[in-house]
Amino acid sequence: MTPRFFPYRPLRLRALLAALAVVSAAFGTAAMVRAGHGTTSASARGVAGLALGGAFLWLVWRLRPRDRYGVRVDLAGAELARPLDGRIERVLWPQIRAVQETGRWARRWVVTLTDGTRREIPRAMFGDPAVFADLGRVLARPEGSREADA
Predict the structure, then answer these.
(1) What is the pLDDT of residues 9-67, one digit of tens each?
(2) Which of 15, 28, 36, 52 is deepest in the core (most CB within 10 A)?
(3) Could you tell me if 45 and 82 lie in one domain?
């Protein structure tokens, strides 16, 4: 099996988070301006809006495309990069019990391991739906595994 790499490219998700950061920063700034005119509760709303905007910007930065950020599949197993911290986890084919697609509105691949734990790979992390579907096919029936040989 030729190693394949499915990169995370959450462009729509990053655009949505960036828009939410701008809106929350605007609300926070407006509330801080009102706080300067004597409204006491406006300062708390302003700080909350600015903090929320900062949190959205942090998510936009953490979800940026980078090297080895995605799912790499090879003959021995799969390497799954965690979306927010970027750490890579190696999962061998014998460790994977099942792969199924779940979620009506937020589609995701759920990889159930033999120890009972699950790893979720959300559709929002991929720019192209075809890449997401192809990843599911490869994870469900990898070339060179016991299931593909049967």
Answers:
(1) 999 999 999 999 999 999 999 888 888 777 677 788 889 999 999 999 999 999 998 88
(2) 28
(3) no
List the domain range (segments joined by +) for residue 53: 11-62
Q: What is the 3-state secondary structure (H, E, C) of 3-37?
A: CEEEECCCHHHHHHHHHHHHHHHHHHHHHHHHHHC
Chain mean pLDDT for the chain: 88
What is the spatial distance between Cα 80 and Cα 6, in angstroms, rounded to a whole number? Answer: 10
Q: How many distinct structural domains can be found in the chain?
A: 2
Residue with tokens 């929320």: 52
Residue type (1 letter), 96:
I
Interatomic CA distance for residues 84 and 86, integer angstroms: 6
Q: Are 43 and 32 in contact (CB under 8 A)?
A: yes
